[in-house]
């Protein structure tokens, strides 16, 4: 991969957005017209069976089946279902008439959805300058060819291009049927996997595959208006629901292979550091143990089942190289606290009005906030199956960045990326965990020492915790002033380590630019505050960190929306009404109004009850949330949450609601109950009893409304997370008068 | 050799007696619907029925379950979908789905004990089952729906 482009003075903010897919497909369509380049561009062309056809990288038809390709990986967010259904909508296929296959690595699957946030303009900005920067970003993405699932980008990326992929396939099949039947294509229609002649004769698509392969594919077709949709935009059953309910669904951890052996590992918990020495004498004789291997940063046990392997791995005594970052947590915080100095300045993202003068007017407020390290810990632990031969490696692993899996695995065993064949898997969650490579690198090292034998690796939950590269640690220092019932100034300063920049470096694509994730949640703030400044500092020398659901905004959104709340109270205003009045973007103001209506907001509740509101835009999607709590004898009880958001178009309404609810649970649960702390260089929390986030008894009812006023289609995987923590903290303040400025909140208040 | 009946089929198992049932099912018998999540009774992903009761299979030693009848999600409906499974589909509970086989087994056991559970009953019995994707609200709704289907019996 190349370095990210320098698009302007302001650096990029990374995430999702924009429907640029139409443009992308247009270009792709042109390439398709020249048959020689089609093979080079469409990765499906190379492995096509006899009498089969592929029209583009997403549709493959052979005489016996139709296969639709899901380019975005499914971590539970439902894109394994909605991607093929977007194709099926235009191709006139019914669920059950096609197979779904996850894409292999190919630049044809580059992610157009990142274009918006690569461009340094706020989401609602449609000025020519903003549009030009987005087009430049898209062009760069096309050249880079980066295939990645993340940044809530799957729908923005695929909304147009997959429907177009289906439409192009449909029109080409009609052309093939026209040629065979002698009927003009315009007189043909399609339904449920058939081309239908005017006399009612049905020609199944599969029967047309050989003919369709011989004609030049139609380059661009007209997309149907949403009013004509059969499937999209209506309540539908996710294609993976049944197999997940019957137990048939095979996740990565469930795959087996003939002749495979089982591996477990014990790795240096001082992240990134090697092993010095080890003593395997106790483990060697344990049941089922076949072999004990030395790895660059630990050991692996090969055994006849996973449990034997895990038991034995625990019993190997290892001597580790110590950490390069501070061994104790208190020193991590000290490092963060000392980073608010020019030397560590990442960027001043915004400076409106005159901040110094503004702060001198009226009453001054100051507050400091903290967000700890937290773990991803999807319920399916890291795993994978790999086999290395002299020719190359084949790997089955659930991952969000296929090309990087090839690079990392190849580098670990001295091969070339193209020698690594990657197969994606259905994943039992990720939340950013499966953008990292701990399992990939280790599996490659093990399989390389076991050449010719398939190796199945499962991380024990404890290893998974110990190796989990956490969310960034962050501190916010805010100052602001209020006068005559108005907010005059706000100065947001955040210091954190840089999650996305670090991930890029590990992917072999280091960036010199400041990490846009340090700016989200302080930069993209839409309140009319005359003097506003947003600055971030990059903390160096701490634990590696990475993208965790909602990334920068998961911490910064909490800081900013908590402080805005403090200013609003200091100004003697109503938290919801004040936000509505200050909000400069009409469609965002509508969200605040809507969530107020949903909750029937009428000001303070009294009787130990309190409500808090928060509003954050992340990855181009704005979300307003209200949380209601009651102070009981046993502690704070969360009664209800209301959410209003706007993604432009809700494609999959049931799943949309599920994802929003899940995002709220994620945001609340971790804010209440979770942190990872270091001692002796290792994380101290090694299972869910120490990091359990939310369980059912704490989970409130969550009411969701999706508006469709935004001008483009947006993602929803992450944006519901950031407002949850500040809305809860603000509600606790309303109920108790106590401001909680640090996560997890359970260090300061009890929850029921 | 230890004997184990899973979903009506008898198996002879050759493992150490302290090996947890979870790994016997997954690695020795290839029955992968019970999931490994934590290994220490914290997540419920491994829940199966043993002689009809919901049990964390990561905690059940092979020696203790030998001779007993284990039922996994595949067999809870006796060849059909169980009403709990139907409700799970109707309300589209799963996201990643990894926790859901354990959730459903736990829900079936709850409904056996309390045919018409309140939210409070549900919270109490289901709180041992973690869902990292946050599907709790849908689980509650689906359990009420399943109770309805089963006629409160
Ligand atoms: S794996 Fe048994 S409770 Fe988590
Ligand atoms: S659905 Fe993913 S853990 Fe529950």
Description:
The complex is a heterodimer of chains A (about 750) and B (about 150). Chain A is of the alpha+beta class and about 750 residues long. In chain A, about 30% of the residues lie in helices and about 20% in strands. Chain A contains 21 helices and 27 strands. In chain A, helix 3 (about 80-90) runs parallel beside helix 6 (about 155-180), helix 6 (about 155-180) crosses helix 7 and helix 17 packs parallel to helix 21. With about 150 residues, chain B is α+β, with helices and mostly antiparallel strands. Chain B folds into 2 domains: about 1-75, Ubiquitin-like (UB roll) (Roll); about 85-150, [2Fe-2S]-binding domain (DNA polymerase, domain 1), CATH 1.10.150. Chain B is about 35% helix and about 15% strand. A 5-stranded mixed β-sheet of chain B has the order 2-1-5-3-4, sandwiched between helices. In chain B, strand 1 (about 1-5) and strand 2 (about 10-15) form a beta hairpin. The termini of chain B are far apart. Classes of the chains: A alpha+beta (about 750), B alpha+beta (about 150). The interface between A and B is large, with 63 and 57 residues. The structure holds FE2/S2 (inorganic) cluster (2 copies). One FE2/S2 (inorganic) cluster (FES) sits at the interface of chains B and A.
Descriptive keywords:
heterodimer; A: 752 residues; alpha+beta; Aldehyde Oxidoreductase, domain 4; 3 domains; 7-stranded mixed beta sheet; 5-stranded mixed beta sheet; globular; disordered N terminus; B: 153 residues; Ubiquitin-like (UB roll); DNA polymerase, domain 1; 6 helices; 5 strands; binds FE2/S2 (inorganic) cluster
